[in-house]
Amino acid sequence: MSAISVGQAVVLGVVEGVTEFLPVSSTGHLKIAEGLMDIPVDDNSVVGFSAVIQVGAIAAVLVYFFKDIVRIVSAWLRGLTNREERYHHDYKFAWWVIYATIPIVAVGLAAKPLIEGPLASLWVVAGSLIVGSGVMWCADQMGRHKRGEDDTSFKDAMLVGTSQILALLFPGFSRSGATMSTALILDLDRVAATRLSFFLGIPALTGAGLYELKDALGAGVGAAPLAVGTIVSFVVAYASIAWLLKFVARHSFNAFVLYRIVVGVLLFGLLGTGTLNA
Question: Is the pTM of this model over 0.85?
């Protein structure tokens, strides 16, 4: 019997799609949803399922930013054989994304037992939600929001890409929250910070999903729940991306900060009263 039913996969697909690119922690929300549905959050097949359905959300990014991605990849391919093309920002940006992905891959492989074990606790999620809120609020206040996407540098990409490790080790911190906060501290404007977060997430999350696929299928999650969860996350994530880019163009991140604090406090309460099992 599958560890996750098709109905549960739909719910988790919606949660993943809504939260993957909002700075509120998709991993944290997935673990909360799994806990409420009595799905063991530290089960290898469940961890694998969560990583695989992220591919649906990443596919939404690929579709939404298709023209940008084609432009960047084309510049990179031309630059491999044409020296003049190597001065183009898109060519350099493609390499930056590749280099910035290396730290999270290395840590993810080295710390896999911790990530799937002690750090998968909902206590960690609750604490990370609240601590991450403080980081995000400070970053939004500190940042001067004066640099656009064309002003990004190798240093920006490496620092923002490396910050993804925080979300990897502390579910609840939020990959989007960590990357956007870092970009804001580096004085990127909110739209540039959000778009950079999207692009840096593509290789890391796609790789994680493909890496975990064998565990998800081999350890108790059927193909049907995986397919349903991935498709639902794609559809919902596409709508979420479109909404977020419009939102950050006109608003601060304060609404997300407040929401994260509320969820973190409620989660502490649910765990403390035994309503949820950590």
Answer: yes
Tally of structural domains, the chain:
1
Burial letters for 21-49: b for 16+ Cβ neighbours within 10 Å, e otherwise? bbbbbbbbbbbbbbbeeebebbbbbbbbb
* Amino acid identity for residue 126 in this structure: A
User: pLDDT by residue (tens digit) across 107-125?
Assistant: 988 988 888 788 888 899 8
DSSP string, 17-68: HHHTTTTT-HHHHHHHHHHHTT--TT-HHHHHHHHHHHHHHHHHHHHHTHHH
Q: Would residue 30 count as lying in a domain? A: yes
Q: Is residue 277 part of a domain?
A: no
Phi, psi of 147 (to 5 degrees): -110, 135
CA distance 195 to 206: 17
pLDDT in tens, 185-197: 999 999 999 999 9
171: containing domain: 6-272
- Residue 278, domain member (yes or no): no
Residue 118 lies in a domain: yes
Cβ within 8 Å of residue 106, ≥6 positions away? none
